[in-house]
From TrEMBL, chain A:
Gene expressing this chain: LOC107567003
Protein name, UniProt field: Nucleolar GTP-binding protein 1
Taxonomic path: Eukaryota, Metazoa, Chordata, Craniata, Vertebrata
UniProt cross-references to Pfam families, sorted A to Z: NOG1, NOG1_N, NOGCT
InterPro entries per record: G_OBG (IPR031167), GTP-bd (IPR006073), NOG1 (IPR024926), NOG1_N (IPR041623), NOG1_Rossman_fold_dom (IPR010674), NOG_C (IPR012973), P-loop_NTPase (IPR027417), Small_GTP-bd (IPR005225)
General function of this protein: Involved in the biogenesis of the 60S ribosomal subunit.
Subcellular location: Nucleus, Nucleolus
Family, per entry: Belongs to the TRAFAC class OBG-HflX-like GTPase superfamily. OBG GTPase family. NOG subfamily.
NCBIfam families: small_GTP
Stretches for region Disordered: 492-579
Gene Ontology terms: biological process: ribosome biogenesis
Source species: Sinocyclocheilus grahami (Dianchi golden-line fish)
From TrEMBL, chain B:
Keyword rRNA processing annotated: yes
Residue ranges of the region described as Disordered: 1-66
Keyword Phosphoprotein: no
Name this polypeptide is given: Ribosome biogenesis protein NSA2 homolog
Compositional bias ranges of the Basic and acidic residues kind: 38-64
Protein family: Belongs to the eukaryotic ribosomal protein eS8 family. Ribosome biogenesis protein NSA2 subfamily.
Job description of the protein: Involved in the biogenesis of the 60S ribosomal subunit. May play a part in the quality control of pre-60S particles.
Annotated localization: Nucleus, Nucleolus
Gene that this polypeptide is encoded by: LOC107585652
PANTHER family: RIBOSOME BIOGENESIS PROTEIN NSA2 HOMOLOG
Biased composition (Basic residues): 17-37
Organism the protein comes from: Sinocyclocheilus grahami (Dianchi golden-line fish)
Amino acid sequence: MALYNFKKIMVVPTAKDFIDLTLSKTQRKTPTVIHKHYQIHRIRHFYMRKIKFTQQNYHDRLSQILTDFPKLDDIHPFYADLMNVLYDKDHYKLALGQINIAKNLIDNVAKDYVRLMKYGDSLYRCKQLKRAALGRMCTILKRQKQSLEYLEQVRQHLSRLPTIDPNTRTLLLCGYPNVGKSSFINKVTRADVEVQPYAFTTKSLFVGHMDYRYLRWQVVDTPGILDHPLEERNTIEMQAITALAHLRAAVLYVMDVSEQCGHTLSQQLELFNNIRPLFANKPLIVMANKCDVRKISELSEENQKVFTDLTAEGILVIETSSLTEEGVMQVKAEACDRLLAHRVDTKMKTKKVHEVLNRLHLAVPTKRDQRERPPFIPEGALLRRKAMETNAPKRKLERDLEVELGDDYTLDLQKYWELMNPEEKQDKIPEIWEGHNIADYIDPEIMKRLEDLEQEEELRAKAGEYDSEEESEDEEMKEIRQLASQIREKRKLKILSSKEKDTQGSRMPRTAKKVERATLEKEMADLGLDMTDKDDSHYARRSRSLVRKRKREVSAPPTSRTRSQSASRPPRDQSGVRDAKVVPACIIHYVYILQGDHMKANIRKLV
Amino acid sequence: DHHERKRKKESREVHERSHKARKMIGLKAKLYHKQRHAEKIQMKKTIKMHEQRKSKQKDDDKTPEGAVPAYLLDREGQSRAKVLSNMIKQKRKEKAGKWEVPLPKVRAQGETEVLKVIRTGKRQKKAWKRMVTKVCFVGDGFTRKPPKYERFIRPMGLRFKKAHVTHPELKATFCLPILGVKKNPSSSLYTTLGVITKGTVIEVNVSELGLVTQGGKVIWGKYAQVTNNPENDGCINAVLLV
């Protein structure tokens, strides 16, 4: 049995939309270019593909519709009956049948035309055949317009049906319209059913959920039922009857004692007797509702007899009022208990229970001697239980205090302290007094503790726990450290020197300032870079116009840039490197063959 | 808030439609504009109808049938004569045996069009076999000649048994079984082969229609003329010759 999810049925498109969709899909997803001079088998294949593609699409979509919609024979009889009431079983089956027929017809059409296409010997003929095939398929679908519209409406309604699980614990409310069923369900569950003074406010089934004894219960609210024979009932009432007939639930028959619903008690009793057969095998409770308006004891003799008769038959009658909530909890408890008992009974009667029962065994310890060993309950527990029973006022909780005070509430833990002088509980404690830090004097042994700590520290220092590990630094780390210290020194000197210099108005940015060749070479030499023989370098070269013509053997990128540019930019092999000295040996393989051998020689010297 | 939403959606629809109509391009746009054009024509017609209701117009049908203006009252004899001469003309036509068919003229189909040459033989040199490329009809008891001697091949895929026949007066179409090919206008060879092209007169089984002769006999066969190119459409559409 396929699992149906009524909310997940795919949208059923209208006939026109369906056709447009499929045709445009065919146009987009199949190749569109074909010429007369192509080979005939290619032309045939091209058009055959289109026909098959369209057929495939129609087939898929129609099959999906057929599988999505629930088969009335496969679902729970409650839902089958409900759908019959709402949508008319015959119409539903017919619509689905038509869709099935259409699907088969489309398949046949495609098959025929593909067969005919094999004899097409010209582009024109094949094209006409394809046009005929697609046209026929679309006409078949156009005829299904009514079925598709109907199915779309069914789908929309179906997805809005309340999810009633027919197998779990359910309470079912029934009775005349306006007796107070919806108010009851609003009180007991979180459902928000409309409650209005006119009859048939509730037009369909509503579900609410509640908890009792750690179990989930469904409460189903039905539209009111009027008293006429089954054949004359309209759709709304039929829904209620369906629910009554198929759901295995505890039935709460609601009667209006005050007769505000517009029907006398005798009429309500009539209805009760008429629907009696539907209550077979179900735990039944009669709710005398609206008892805040009129109690049973205030009724006339004959009306009271009604209720006494019911009680005499063994049906529980409870007075309730949705307005004052009197009796609501009692009804709930009673109904739930009875239903549980009923369910357990039915389960016991089935054969499956024996399988479980056979495996269960209650082990009772054998009596060792004749001494009585009653269960031990400590005194405190007994007292507490007594207190609970008498509803003695418990200790006031902080939470209660918080609720009382509202915004003014502050957590005051100082009131729990135990002091010699209880009036001092709320006093503020100073931090410094007479020049001394109070925290120092809290603990009388604080000096001793300090000494202990210090001794421990000495021991630890002696043991060498705080000595830093001398890592084995390799050459380059040492070099780097040395260089770093040098840099720091130099930086400090520079800062001092710049501070001494007096600033003369706005300064030129460094890039615009001309750096003398001599200063550059001097600085680099200080750092240790070999600056001899630098006539060929980029900063010493003249501007573009005087550059020598590049020779062909030297397949190097032209490095002649104007001097203003070159002064600030290092050559590309060293642009990423901060200081030439730090270049480790491994960087050598990134060196390009640059202008002349001078650079190469220099680099070799560095390493 | 369902009603609120619905109302708002409907009012938004106008703007969305105009936006769509302006921005759409391509094939979709052509189809949409065509459809919209048809819709607009209908709207205009209904508006015009509503307007006509309010205004009064001359009714041209008030004059009854057969009424004649005053100055023609003496000319009855002439009309009767015309009727008589028409009858005589019809009788003459029937005697001549001229068939009036819906398609009097039809394009002649050449042999190269209708028959395709099939080469056979060890070296594919012999070319005496022909395959029919048009739709054909073979009778119920048809059995092929032994394939070796078969000169004309009528492929099974192109054999049709039913035709969609329209009654010209009832304007209703029925799917009737074909009884045989009466005459193919292009060539008598095609008639014998049973090739059905546009303009071919075929005989169809009309027992479905329940026609009865004056004598009380049931008519079960009638002629119909083919009105489409069956090899292009995959079906035979014909008009009944009454």
